[in-house]
Amino acid sequence: MRRDEIADLAAFVVVAEERSFTRAAIRLGMAQSALSQIVRRTEERLGLRLLSRTTRSVAPTDAGERLIATLGPMLHDLDAAIASLGELRDRPSGTIRLTTVEHAAKTIIVPAMKRLLADNPDIRVEMTIDYGLADVVADRFDAGVRLGGEVAKNMIAMRIGPDTPMAVVGSPDYFRRHAVPNSPAQLIDHRAINLRLPTSGTLNKWRLARGGRETRVRVDGPLVFNTIDLILDAALDGHGLAYLPLDQVRHHLDGGRLMRVLGKFTPDLPGYHLYYPHRQHASSAFTLFVETLRFRA
């Protein structure tokens, strides 16, 4: 295969990842028209339609998905090998792409990056907030952050934070209209503000304790979001009960804007873990990133 054909395939992968010719062109630093010609040329050479195009979106076809599944890990390994050459420079450098949930980003990663980036100005960290269980290899991330127990077994996993205390909360206005629940069974009479999980498409079930055993409870309600910031706002507005990290609601509890219920039925969640595939050529920037996040009790 010629070098220009390899470059064309790499450009196709970027378009498929971004689901947009416009965003892909910006990422690649080239004209959108030129990128469109590259993809069209690749499809003609292979004799297959790789992308389905509408006026609003771009998505890979079945053939495109199969090609991405093969090319994605190869390109990721190539990027890692090139990034590892940064060790030959005086200072660690390169971009680290991370998929994480917003709570971990706010409470652990962003504070840690203040130290890392101040000492290493040539390192860049790009975070994507996503509650789905991302495939870091296929999606070309360097690493991901999820709660312990949610990490694929074929990944290297490292704890980066303590266990996470959770809280079921509601506003005083909500409790003026609804009785305070004294057990998880009474949640059937309440309205919840829920979190949608993109990977499964289901609602996040609340982890509560019943009879000394942890169980996952689904509570129906009028509002569903994909971000905990909006869930918190809706709880403050009195729309229903919310299941949120305690540190995100503590100041509202202290200020009387929220009330906590079912405290003895709400166990801590396993701490956040950084997960990533085994790689032979980890860059010095990635090694520093890992060590910066390592949890030290």
UniProtKB/TrEMBL annotation:
Q: What processes in GO biological process is this protein linked to?
A: DNA-templated transcription
Q: Does the keyword DNA-binding apply?
A: yes
Keywords from the named record: DNA-binding, Transcription, Transcription regulation
PROSITE patterns (alphabetical): HTH_LYSR
Instruction: Extract the Pfam families matched here.
Output: HTH_1 (PF00126), LysR_substrate (PF03466)
Q: Which InterPro entries match?
A: LysR-type_TF_proteobact-type, LysR_HTH_N, LysR_subst-bd, WH-like_DNA-bd_sf, WH_DNA-bd_sf
Task: Mention one GO molecular function.
Answer: DNA-binding transcription factor activity
Q: Where does the source fall among the domains of life?
A: Bacteria
Provide the HTH lysR-type domain boundaries. 4-61
Q: Does the keyword DNA-binding apply?
A: yes
The similarity annotation says:
Belongs to the LysR transcriptional regulatory family.
Q: What does this protein do?
A: NodD regulates the expression of the nodABCFE genes which encode other nodulation proteins. NodD is also a negative regulator of its own expression. Binds flavonoids as inducers.
What is this protein's name?
Answer: LysR family transcriptional regulator
Q: What is the native source organism of this protein?
A: Nitrobacter vulgaris
